[in-house]
Amino acid sequence: MAHVLIFIGLAACSFLWGGIPTGYIVVKLLKGTDIRTLGSGNIGATNVRRVLGTAWFLGVLALDAAKGALPVVLWLMFSSNGFERVLIAALTIGGNLFSPWLGFKGGKGIGTGLGALLILAPLPMAACLIVFVIVLLTLNYVSVASVIAAFVFPIAIFAAESVRRVRHDTILLVFAVILALALAVMHRANLARLAGGTEHKFFTRD
């Protein structure tokens, strides 16, 4: 019973914690402005870069990643149950996507997901990071690199488990597929702008 109560408590805290809008807070403190009225209107690190520059992009990304990692690390210290650790990660990322602090509207889950998934599946996530960087450097669109890397994640998990010849973690694989689809949906506006030729490039001469 105690285990269940602790899990429920951490699960609720994970959603609230994941929902802390790092980019929104940073821009509000430094410029006194709502980042949702600037650039793309998103609260994530990429839009922070447009508003505050590359240094703050890296800072917000690191903070979001740490935010995503912490609840998963805490729960793994308490339990190794596969379903529970995946659910904690999902709720943390979900909090970022639907921030309870901003009327259940949030970011796109990339930074927070990065931290949570590096704890859940470090090697597959490292492979996704490599793919992300290659696609970003090649095509110069964060949105495209993020979506492609997200779909590489379940493939990388399956491949890593196959190489190690261990039993496939069905719960983690299903979560990875659902997360990839969710992130693609969250980036639908970006993909629409890409199709229309108006999507923001990451590296510019400005």
Description:
The protein has 206 residues and is mainly alpha-helical. It has one domain (2-195). It is built from 10 helices and no strands. The chain is globular, with a radius of gyration of 17 Å. The model has no long low-confidence stretch (mean pLDDT 94).
Q: Please state the overall shape, judged from the principal axes of the Cα atoms.
A: globular
- Counted beta strands: 0
Q: How many structural domains in the coordinates?
A: 1
Rg (CA only) = 17 Å
Mean pLDDT: 94
Give the H and E element order. HHHHHHHHHH
List key phrases describing it.
206 residues, mainly alpha, 10 helices, 74% helix
Question: How are the elements arranged and paired?
Answer:
Elements: H1 2-18, H2 22-31, H3 45-52, H4 54-78, H5 82-97, H6 110-120, H7 122-139, H8 142-164, H9 170-186, H10 188-195
Task: Describe the structure concisely for a colleague.
This protein is mostly helical. It has helices at residues 2-18, 22-31, 45-52, 54-78, 82-97, 110-120, 122-139, 142-164, 170-186, 188-195. It has one domain (2-195).
